[in-house]
Amino acid sequence: MSVPATELTAAREGEAESLQFVVFSLSGCECAVGIRDVREIDRVLDLTLVPRAPRFVEGVLNLRGRVVPVLDLRKRFDMPLMERTEESRVLITDIQDQWVGLWVDRVVGVVRVPPSALLPQPSEPVLSVEPHCLKGRVPWEGRLILLLDLEKLLTLDPGRALPEGETA
Fold first, then answer.
1. Which letter does DSSP use for residue 52 in this model?
2. Domain CATH number, residue 76
3. Do the beta carbons of residue 72 and residue 63 sit within 8 Å?
4. What is the pLDDT of residues 11-44, one digit of tens each?
5. What is the per-residue burial (b if ≥16 Cβ within 10 Å, else e) of 80-95?
6. pLDDT tens readout for residues 84-102
7. 161, 154 contact by CB (below 8 A)
8. Residue 167 located in a structural domain
9. Which domain range does residue 20 map to?
């Protein structure tokens, strides 16, 4: 499923009392990021490989003149790797004015939940996602969705964030 830009824009302008997330699947695990952090959702794009990059950096892409690193979240979280399909997407996110692409298996959609529904960040890893990479969990339609902390995704290991100006 592809989420049209008009749906993202409409969801961003939605009710202030609810929180909105873009939900996606990674090796069968459902994760989400805040809708305000997602600039666009694209089909698989041509990437340029980056020598000596961390193993979870798939490469970079040129998006309207802007160089955007693309991370494979399955590799980042040591999840089982799957073949890319027609449903595979790249979420272009904006993390502190740095665009970063997140390669995901498929986009489930946009969900809206009240702030009171959020569950706190776990103290232990959930599946293979380190707790420092999670902001919390979102119960939705009988499922538990992991809410990712985008800023922490740019760390090479739990104790080291990327230095200013260095990209993943």
1. T
2. 2.40.50.180
3. no
4. 445 445 899 999 999 988 899 999 999 999 998 7
5. eeeeeeeebbbbbbeb
6. 888 999 999 998 888 999 9
7. yes
8. no
9. 5-161
